[in-house]
Structure formats: structure tokens, C-alpha cells
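User: C-alpha cells in, sequence out, please.
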């Protein structure tokens, strides 16, 4: 058998490599085609990140098709047309595109959409300090329950740059379109102004493990003193009405204080008057009260003073102020 010359050997190697690439491309292309035909691929099962982090032992015994199937499970690809919840949801015209994951993993991807009204894109971030009272000077994040392992969610409220109207010689409706990258436990989209809308979108994301780095020791504070008669904003109060504040009504004498304590994980307000009226908030208004926050109000005059929560208007209460016994 003769010896191959260097030039002929190089050609042979190149042909072999090209053949391997063509075969691999065909195999992956066929699998990608199957993925596309499924429309939406989601799974809480083992994903490719697991396989990569746990080493080759996890892939022992898998053939090429099974290994690729495990890899595709880390992808989320979806598209659709959706309507906002409607008038029953009040100001919360929010659509959960990707509900927050319970396993603590994160999505990384992009959503592209067009909507009939301006909407906020809200990547849902894990807020890992539900039990701690943080000093007020550090400020508050907008949070609500529903995060992984009992944590809270702090949505990142992103307003896309929609630009101006599209130049056209034919009549067209005003629409709002954008592509927004995100990395989060979940993804919502909508508005907090009660504006009902339609949206059509496509989304592609990959699921990754995440490393937790909670450290808020410098911000941890002590519970504030209750300076007056305490009224608790009870746990789960967002779904209640006249039992959301306890006691309700609360009775005091003129010149005394009432201190509301938010014992819930949802944010709330204590706002005088009734929802939707011009007088709402004129006499007193706590503003945003995150978990564990307090608000104190002195009542100098006799009478009955109604109040409610601006975030959850179904929550209502009354302060009854009687004449000073002295």
C-alpha cells in the first residue's frame, strides 16, 4: 500500500469533516423542525443545565436522540394572541406570559410583541427578604407574594420605547410594538391603569439554574412602636373586604392616634374616603405600605371616617371618633 502525500491527506481530512458537519446539521435541523412544530415547549423536568452541571454520569446510557431531547427541554418557545383580564380586574390589566417558576430557576430570552395600548413589560424577580423588616431609609420595592420557596416577587417594570406613528398612505390603527430581552423567574405584561388591550407576541427563552446571593444585613431594622390603637392589615387581606382591617370599625376618642400595621405580604394603603371619589385621600393617606410597614394618624374631631386600600379597593374600613371622655 502506497503512502499518501501530504496534499492528498489534507483533502481526505477536509472531506471527512464536511461530511460530519452535514450529518450533524441534518440531525439538529430535523430536531429543530420538530421543536418548531410543537409551538410551545415547556418542562419542569431535568434540563440541559442539569446535564452540564452534574457531569457525564447523568448522560450514561443515553443515545444521541435522547441526549438531544433532554437538551431541548431547556427551551421555551411560544406565541399567541391574548386579551387583558377585563373590567373585573380593575386597574390590574396584567397577563402572566410566564408564571414565576417555583424551582428558583430563571428564564433568559426575548419577547417581541405588538399591542393595542402601551404596556409595561414586567420580568418577575425573586425577592428573598419576606420575613425581615428593612429600614425605611433604604426605600421600598414593589413586591407581592408568589415567588419560589415562599419568597416574594419584585417585578422590574420596564416601559419600552415605542417611538412614533408609522408613516403610511393607508389608514392604520395605532399600535405599540417592541422587542424586550429579559432574565427572570417569570414574565408578565400589561398596565396598572385599567386600560384593556390586545396583544400578539412571540417568545423564546432558555432556562438556567441560578445562584442565590441574598445579603441585606445592613438594611435590617427593628419593628416600629405602635403609637396609638393598633389596626392590623391582616394576612391575605387583598382578597377580603370589611374584614381586611382588624378591628373594623376601630373606636377611639378625639385627640388619639390609630396605627395601622401591615401584617400581610402584599403592599397596601390606608386612604381616607371611598374609591373613585374626588375626596379620596384628602384627610389622610399612608401611601405605599410594604410588608411590616406602619402608618399613624391622629383624629382630632368626632365623627366616622371611612378609608380603603388604593391598591385593593375592595378593602374598606371605618374609624369611629367619639368625644373625649374628659
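Assistant: Sequence out:
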Amino acid at each position: 500500500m502506497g503512502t499518501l502525500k501530504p496534499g492528498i491527506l489534507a483533502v481526505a481530512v477536509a472531506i471527512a469533516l464536511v461530511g460530519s458537519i452535514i450529518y450533524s446539521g441534518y440531525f439538529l435541523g430535523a430536531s429543530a423542525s420538530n421543536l418548531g412544530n410543537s409551538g410551545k415547549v415547556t418542562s419542569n423536568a431535568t434540563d440541559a443545565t442539569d446535564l452540564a452541571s452534574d457531569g457525564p454520569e447523568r448522560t450514561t446510557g443515553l443515545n444521541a436522540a435522547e441526549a438531544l431531547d433532554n437538551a431541548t427541554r431547556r427551551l421555551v418557545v411560544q406565541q399567541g394572541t391574548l386579551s387583558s383580564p377585563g373590567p373585573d380586574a380593575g386597574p390590574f390589566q396584567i397577563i402572566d406570559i410566564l408564571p414565576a417558576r417555583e424551582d428558583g430557576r430563571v428564564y433568559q430570552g426575548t419577547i417581541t410583541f405588538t399591542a393595542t395600548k402601551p404596556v409595561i413589560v414586567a420580568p418577575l424577580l425573586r425577592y428573598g427578604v419576606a420575613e425581615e423588616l428593612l429600614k425605611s431609609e433604604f426605600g421600598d420595592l414593589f413586591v407581592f407574594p408568589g415567588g419560589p420557596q415562599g419568597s416574594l416577587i419584585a417585578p422590574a417594570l420596564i416601559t419600552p420605547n415605542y417611538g412614533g406613528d408609522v408613516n403610511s398612505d393607508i389608514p392604520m390603527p395605532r399600535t405599540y410594538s417592541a422587542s424586550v430581552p429579559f432574565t427572570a423567574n417569570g414574565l408578565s405584561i400589561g398596565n396598572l391603569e385599567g386600560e384593556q388591550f390586545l396583544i400578539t407576541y412571540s417568545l423564546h427563552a432558555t432556562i438556567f439554574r441560578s445562584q442565590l446571593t441574598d445579603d441585606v444585613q445592613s438594611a435590617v431594622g427593628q419593628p416600629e412602636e405602635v403609637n396609638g390603637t393598633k389596626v392590623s392589615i391582616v394576612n391575605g387581606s387583598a382578597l377580603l373586604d370589611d374584614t381586611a382591617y382588624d378591628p373594623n370599625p376601630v373606636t377611639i376618642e378625639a385627640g388619639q392616634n390609630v396605627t395601622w400595621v401591615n401584617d400581610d405580604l402584599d403592599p397596601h394603603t390606608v386612604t381616607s374616603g371611598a374609591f373613585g371619589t374626588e375626596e379620596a385621600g384628602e384627610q389622610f393617606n399612608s401611601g405605599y405600605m410594604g410588608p411590616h410597614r406602619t402608618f399613624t394618624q391622629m383624629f382630632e374631631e368626632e365623627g366616622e371616617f371611612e378609608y380603603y386600600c388604593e391598591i385593593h379597593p375592595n378593602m374598606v374600613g371605618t374609624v369611629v371618633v367619639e368625644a373625649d371622655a374628659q
